[in-house]
Amino acid sequence: PDPEGERPEARDGIRCSLSSDSALSKPLDEAFSLWEQLLEHPGIPKVRSLEQTVSSLQLLAALYRLQGKPIQALESFLLLRSLCRRLGDHLGRANSLCQITRILLQLECPSQAQVFLEELELCLGEDEGSE
Known about the structure:
The protein is mainly alpha-helical. The protein contains five helices and no strands.
């Protein structure tokens, strides 16, 4: 028996889950890095499907959130916001702004969230003006 009363299997399980968390995060981090490189240049990126690109960024952000990585999710939504702005996709941009604001509020950053809420108001105004 362990002198501290802790079973060895419990420690092994924690070690295993930490290493598997890192293993799961690595492909997401690599994907984020590739999207970031693609979107660092101004203009609309040359991709096969812009809709699929938008969906991929949404999925990336959602997976980061499921992993409990709000900063990475926030960065992914910022990339998505940038892409949607370039595409003139007001609904996609508004959705990304909502998600960014939500994460910032969860991180207890209300003044930063306010900036994105103001952008959201402008975005919604642009969408109403285009109809």
